[in-house]
Each structure stands twice: as C-alpha cells, then as structure tokens.
Amino acid sequence: MFGLKKNKFSQVHIDQELIEEIINIAKEFYPNEFSAMLQGKVEDNILKINGLIFLPGAASESGAVMEIFMMPMLSDAVGSVHSHPIYSAQPSAADLQFFSKHGYFHIIIAQPYNKESIRVYNSYGDLVNYTII
Ligand SMILES: [Zn+2]
Predict the structure, then answer these.
(1) How far is the CA of 109 from the centre of ligand 1 (A)?
(2) pTM
(3) Ligand 1 mean position to 44 CA, how many Å?
(4) pLDDT reported for residue 53
(5) Is 80 exceeded by the pLDDT of residue 77?
(6) Which residue of 15, 61, 81, 99 has the smallest Cβ count within 10 Å?
(7) Is the pLDDT of residue 62 over 60?
(8) How close is the Cα of 43 to the center of ligand 1, in Å?
(9) pLDDT of 32 above 70
(10) Paired strand residues for 118
(11) 39 and 75 Cβ atoms separated by less than 8 Å
C-alpha cells in the first residue's frame, strides 16, 4: 500500500479516543490551526495510530508549520495531523509538500470538526481508507 518499503501495512486503524482528542483540540484552537505528529506502530500488517506528539511551534496562526527538525528523533512518529479552520479538508500546496517529506499518514480535520470532516491522506496526498477502532 502507500508505496512503503520498510513499514508495510495493509490496513490503518485509528484509536477512537484519539479521534475524539483531535476533534476536541481542533475546536479548542479554532480559529487557529493546530498541528501535531501522529504516533503509531505497525503490528500484524496493520498501522495502528494511537497518539499525538506536540512539537514546539505547533500552535501557529499562519498554518501547519512545524519545527520538524526534531522529527528524526521521533522514531514512532508516522505522520501528522492538523486542522483547517474552514470547511475544506483539501490539502494546500504547502500541506502536500509537507506530506511528501514527513511520514506516510496525514490527517486533516476541517470544520465543523467531527468524524465526517476528517480526511486521511498518504504522502502523495491521495485519500486513504481507515477504520476507527
Ligand atoms: Zn492544511
């Protein structure tokens, strides 16, 4: 799937509580964006997303710009999540550039910040399927 060479998986599971946490944080930060890294691991061919890693500079008014120099130290970071204070979860050009470089699994949550306004993309910006567990 996803063109991965090292971390092969055929399914993506996102923790139910993590989804709720993301929804709550997005609402809390509105009208600003929030961004964080996603924590997860591959087990039995399933990528399990189960936590957030907040980085310095993650709360910005200017968009999903993260101080990503810390990234190589975060071995269990698998991708990113950020919110859009608009009703579109379409990745921006900057988002797509970011996706291609930092992990292989990226969540955008748009307004009105619920499960239906969450979109998940791979590093190429293609939508990927996932299951909330
Ligand atoms: Zn964005």
Answers:
(1) 9
(2) 0.84
(3) 31
(4) 86
(5) yes
(6) 61
(7) no
(8) 29
(9) yes
(10) 109
(11) no
Give distance in angstroms: CA of 9 to centre of ligand 1. 25
Q: Which amino acid is at 36?
A: A
C-alpha to C-alpha distance for 133 and 131, rounded to whole angstroms: 6
- What angle (nearest 5°) sits at the alpha carbon of residue 47, between those of residues 116 and 5? 120
Say if CB 71 and CB 102 are below 8 A apart: yes
Preceding peptide of 56 cis, ω within 30°: no
- What number of other Cβ atoms are within 10 A of residue 53's Cβ? 16
Report every protein residue that has its C-beta within 5 angstroms of ion ligand 1. Answer: 64, 92, 95
CA of 91 to the centre of ligand 1 (A): 5
Residue 1 has pLDDT above 60, yes or no: no
- How far is the C-alpha of 126 from the C-alpha of 119, rounded, in Å? 10
State the pLDDT at residue 4: 44
CATH number of the 11-132 domain:
3.40.140.10
* Dist. CA 25 → ligand 1 center (Å): 15
CA of 133 relative to ligand 1 center, distance in Å: 25
- Whole-number pLDDT of residue 5: 45
Q: How close is the Cα of 58 to the center of ligand 1, in Å?
A: 13
